[in-house]
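A.,

Following up on our hallway conversation. Structure tokens first:
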């Protein structure tokens, strides 16, 4: 939501300052639809031709992610740690057979059902279920270090894939000023075709052409670049949950004491969302 406040502040400062110093919004309002059609259409076309459909959709959906903010808050991390810990406890107490129904169909699992929000995160549930499935089929002969290598690779690939949406938005922000110049040049071409018109008409045409340059720079550095940067931050923060899952699973495989497992998972979380040791420990005791 803070991003919306930033955009509002951006418009107030830029256009409010323009009007406050005697500027007339009428020429900008008149020229903006056509210029935005050229700049926006060319930008979207470039996005479509330069990215796969999945990355394009993720980039467009990135605006929603920026508005909503990070997926997980402090209470969510407490619940996630409790659920993964319970899965590992069940594996240790009841054996591999008891885990098959949970990892093969997590939607019907009573343990996963304790925190349904996890099921919507396919990257997280996939990492947990695939790793536990690997442990089950290996019949307890699996090295924790081998599992760590596999999980680390999986997390890196997932994170790299997620970042492509932010990279696509950043590339678009870099192209918008140039596309604004394209729109401006087309406006100049239109103006040259009316060179025989009186100065007031030519002035209006030139002003409309310059709106294209303005809008390209304005959208690039005022909207798209900040949103691309914020999307990368959110992706980084949302990716912390995968490291939390990795620490809990590996800690249990190594046979570490519960306090050490909790702390190993907790320190993977950024300070804004990091629960205290006591909050996690209390949740595990319920």
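Then the amino acids I'd put at each of the 286 positions:
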């Amino acid at each position: 939501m803070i991003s919306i406040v930033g955009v509002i502040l951006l418009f107030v400062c830029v256009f409010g300052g323009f009007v406050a110093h005697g500027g007339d919004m009428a020429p900008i309002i008149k020229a903006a639809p056509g210029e935005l059609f050229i700049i926006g259409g060319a930008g979207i076309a470039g996005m479509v031709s330069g990215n796969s459909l999945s990355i394009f959709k993720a980039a467009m959906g990135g605006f929603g992610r920026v508005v909503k903010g990070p997926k997980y808050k402090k209470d969510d991390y407490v619940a996630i740690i409790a659920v993964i810990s319970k899965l590992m406890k069940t594996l240790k107490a009841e054996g591999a057979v008891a885990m098959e129904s949970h990892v093969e169909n997590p939607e019907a699992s009573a343990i996963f059902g304790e925190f349904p929000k996890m099921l919507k995160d396919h990257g997280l549930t996939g990492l947990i279920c695939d790793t536990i499935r690997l442990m089950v089929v290996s019949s307890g002969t699996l090295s924790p270090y081998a599992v760590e290598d596999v999980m680390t690779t999986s997390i890196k690939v997932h994170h790299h894939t997620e970042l492509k949406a932010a990279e696509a938005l950043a590339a678009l922000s870099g192209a918008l000023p140039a596309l604004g110049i394209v729109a401006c040049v087309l406006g100049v071409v239109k103006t040259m075709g009316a060179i025989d018109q009186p100065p007031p008409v030519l002035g209006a045409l030139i002003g409309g052409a310059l709106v294209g340059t303005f809008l390209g720079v304005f959208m690039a550095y005022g909207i798209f670049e900040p949103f691309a940067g914020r999307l990368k931050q959110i992706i980084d923060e949302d990716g912390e949950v995968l490291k939390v899952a990795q620490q809990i699973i590996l800690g249990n495989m190594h046979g570490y004491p519960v306090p050490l497992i909790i702390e190993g998972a907790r320190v993977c979380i950024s300070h804004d969302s990091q629960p205290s040791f006591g909050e996690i420990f209390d949740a595990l005791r319920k």
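The mean pLDDT is 90. Curious whether your intuition agrees with the design.

B.
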